[in-house]
Write a structure and sequence with these properties.
The strands form seven sheets. Strands 1, 2, 3, 4, 11 and 12 form a six-stranded mixed sheet that branches. A five-stranded mixed sheet has the order 18-13-14-15-19, with helices on both faces. A five-stranded antiparallel sheet has the order 21-20-23-24-28, with no helix packed on it. It has about 600 residues and is an alpha+beta fold. The protein is built from 13 helices and 28 strands. The longest helix is centred in the last third of the chain and has 49 residues. It folds into four domains: about 300 residues, Nucleotidyltransferase, domain 5 (2-Layer Sandwich); about 80 residues, ATPase, substrate binding domain, subdomain 4 (Actin, Chain A, domain 4), CATH 3.90.640; about 110 residues, Substrate Binding Domain Of DNAk, Chain A, domain 1, CATH 2.60.34; about 100 residues, Substrate Binding Domain Of Dnak, Chain:A, Domain 2. It is about 40% helix and about 30% strand. The chain is globular and about 110 Å long. It binds adenosine-5'-triphosphate and magnesium ion. Adenosine-5'-triphosphate binds next to α7.
């Protein structure tokens, strides 16, 4: 037996859920938290750590700790977003072999799907520990505004983690599903999702049959809590520079401390009016001697620093409503998703814009994973998910002169496909090149290139040219594919992908192998830890009963010998416990069990 789980692969936090007794439930990790920070680090000894423990060591290991990797997903190295991230990140970002983006950790290059796979794998372990069954399939959510490259990257991440991604679901759609599950009262929802890295606004209509129809969806996949954090960081560092003439960006450790303090201040200011940022010894050495950072930040100041970001989300809401051809007052319920919606200024803005208070009772951090679990369960039971989504971006091709010809418009329900006829014009032309793009600009260069394709080996010199029918498809996951057919011969033509910013099959294979190896290593480490704990428990128990055993048995030579043996065994195991390998642990555990039996029996006899 195996289960399909729902995973919210967030910029800041990941969350996994599963349907149990007909109800979706979030699965807590082994630390007892419902979400796991999307942070991964590599230690000096080359060990990989993920989640809470990675956060804890971030300040002392900033250059090898990655957070916010999702913001780089599917983005070419040469893009504004990657440049922005590189300027703010504590780790090194380099170009990959496919014009893609890579991160260096202790000398080893990692692709973004590879890093995302580490979070998926972590969620898989959390789910397997809870369900006790193998988890090798998942519904994974992505921001609705994610383009094809970003979605492909998520699919690659799944493959690397050894997880079959059975469906890629848009985050706001998943949230709407969890919110409206089981209702049959028709209504129109606005899902406002402001997370750590991305913003989405989706308008979803629930019909009388309980089916969910996304009417419009739009957003910004580079607008979220990280931008709010950066504003606070910039303020703190500027103030520090003004007061001390020291640029903290030059110290990765100081930068990391300021980042964490900024995040903390921002979060605290959702419930208090002012908070102190206090970072003693932010600079501890150097010509100036030790310096401390001490500033007070007020909620009002935070709102000033980030007001334009909130305004931008409202402008995007406006576009979403225009697409849906609705006015704010025609929305029945507004749902807030994402940790950033706890900020009072965000709540006020949304309430003002939609002229109604947002719904209570939606857990902003968990609702997306819950929706993913519901969809996963439907797929598990071979039922329809009842979800009807749309594509957020227009898809089209480059025309002569660098124009963009949209073939599938934005807000088109998916899955969908469109056919286009290409005819060779020149005598002897045997190749047709097609550049496929996504975006809303009339200029190809301003849109996002998905790939360059070539139809090759066309018959030369056919009278009137060769007619090739090319089919462009967007599937339910929002992922694009292309196929072609020679209309005169009926022959299917293969299309060569000339460029894409993703990973090659070989690379995915290699990363998969690495990932599986790590999982095996981790599982073995866990089982060793379990044995160690079992030994520790026995040691503690034996230490507890030995004094009594001694009292009762030590007056006979046999008894004294037994107690002495037991004491020696306990001591031996205790000193060797931390470094013991599998074999030694098994032996030591068996030894302790024998000692336990011997003492128990002796005590029984003595009493
Ligand atoms: N009480 C709070 N006040 C303000 N911001 C908060 C609060 N709690 C969490 N946040 C912020 O919310 C963001 C994380 O939200 P969430 O976990 O929903 O994001 P995510 O799902 O990981 O990201 P995304 O959906 O963008 O990929 C972080 O920027 C965090 O600082
Ligand atoms: Mg989210």
């Amino acid at each position: 037996m195996s289960r399909i789980v729902g995973i919210d692969l967030g910029t800041t936090n990941c969350c996994v859920a599963v349907v149990d007794d007909a109800k979706p439930r979030v699965i807590p990790n082994k630390h007892g938290y419902n979400t796991t920070p999307s942070v991964v680090a590599v230690t000096e000894t080359g060990q990989r750590i993920v989640g809470q423990i990675a956060v804890r060591q971030a300040v002392t290991n900033p250059e090898h700790t990655v957070q916010g990797a999702k913001r780089l997903m599917g983005r070419p190295f040469d893009s504004d977003e990657v440049r922005h991230a590189a300027a703010h990140a504590s780790f090194e970002i380099v170009p990959g072999p496919h014009e893609d983006t890579r991160i260096i950790l202790h000398g080893k290059e990692h692709s973004i799907p590879e890093l995302s796979a580490m979070f998926l794998q972590e969620m898989r372990v959390v789910a397997e520990d809870y369900t006790g069954v193998r988890v090798d399939r998942a519904v994974v959510t992505v921001p609705a505004y994610f383009n094809d490259n970003q979605r492909q990257a998520v699919r690659d991440a799944g493959a690397i983690a050894g997880l079959e991604v059975v469906r890629i679901l848009n985050e706001p759609t998943a949230a709407a599903l969890a919110f409206g599950f089981g209702t049959s009262e028709p209504k129109t929802l606005a899902v406002y999702d402001l997370g750590g890295g991305t913003f989405d606004i989706s308008i979803v209509r629930i019909d009388e049959h309980g089916e969910f129809h996304v009417v419009s969806t739009t957003g910004d996949s580079f607008l979220g809590g990280e931008d709010f954090d950066e504003r606070v960081m910039d303020f703190l560092m500027k103030a520090f520079y003004r007061d001390n003439e020291i640029d903290l960006r030059e110290s990765p450790i100081a930068l990391q401390r300021v980042r964490q303090a900024a995040q903390k201040a921002k979060t605290e200011l959702s419930s208090v009016d002012e908070t102190d940022v206090s970072l003693p010894f932010i600079i501890s050495t150097g010509p100036t001697g030790p310096r401390h950072m001490e500033y007070t930040v007020t909620r009002q100041h935070l709102e000033q620093l980030t007001g334009d970001l909130v305004t931008r989300t409202l402008q995007i809401c406006e576009i979403g409503l225009q697409y849906a051809q609705l006015k704010p007052e025609e929305i029945d319920e507004v749902i807030l998703v994402g940790g950033m919606t706890r900020m009072p200024a965000v709540q006020r803005a949304v309430e003002g814009y939609f002229e109604r208070p947002p719904c209570k009772g939606v857990h902003p951090d968990e609702v997306v994973a819950l929706g993913a679990a519901l969809a996963a369960h439907a797929i598990e039971e071979d039922r329809d998910t009842g979800l009807h989504d749309v594509t957020a971006h227009s898809l089209g091709i480059m025309t002569a002169g660098g124009g963009f010809d949209a073939l599938i418009p934005a807000m088109e329900p998916v899955p969908t496909k469109v056919e286009e006829l290409f005819t060779t014009s020149r005598d002897g032309q045997t190749t047709v090149k097609i550049v496929v793009l996504q975006g809303e600009s009339q200029w190809a260069a301003e849109n996002n290139a998905l790939g360059r394709f070539a139809l090759t080996n066309l018959r030369p010199g056919a009278a009137g040219g060769v007619r090739v029918r090319v089919t462009f498809t967007i599937d339910e996951d929002g992922i694009f594919s292309v196929g072609a057919k020679d209309l005169d011969t009926g022959e299917e033509k293969t299309i060569d992908v000339l460029a894409s910013s993703g990973l090659s099959d070989d690379e995915i294979e290699r990363m998969m192998a690495d990932s599986a190896e790590f999982l095996a290593f981790r599982r073995a480490e866990e089982s060793r830890e379990d044995s160690r704990q079992a030994c520790s428990r026995l040691i503690a128990k034996l230490k507890g009963v030995l004094p009594e055993a001694e009292k009762k048995m030590a007056w006979t030579p046999v008894g004294a010998n037994a107690v002495e043996k037991a004491r020696k065994a306990v001591q031996l195991v205790e000193t060797g416990l931390s470094g013991a390998d599998d074999e030694a642990l098994t032996k030591q555990h068996a030894l302790l069990l024998r000692v336990e039996q011997m003492i128990d029996r002796a005590l029984e006899k003595a009493s």
